[in-house]
Design a protein that fits this description.
Order of helices and strands: HHH
Number of helices: 3
Strand content: under 5%
Largest sheet: none
Distance between the termini: 68 Å
Structural class: mainly alpha
Shape: elongated
Amino acid sequence: MNAWLVAACVLLAAGMGPCLWRACRGEPAQRLLGVTLGGTAAMGVCLLIARGVQRPSYVDVALVLAVLSPAGTLVFCRCLAGGTHPESGGDRAGGTRTEGS
């Protein structure tokens, strides 16, 4: 086990524990912070593991996680907001609204 893998283990234990705790407890905004920070910590762990096992192709996993983590944060924000469109006036099926209904 080299220094890169030791650093990955330390980051996994010390970094992901508080992130998981915050993602499971607290108010919704604090949970969002835990999820976001957890994605960043997971990306760091993936980069350290790729360097530790000397496989440059494993960096691709970290790059995909770096792209998908902000998208997951946006989805979580959408759930916090209630998922409504303020500009939508019609129903979601694409039909037209009538006066009496």
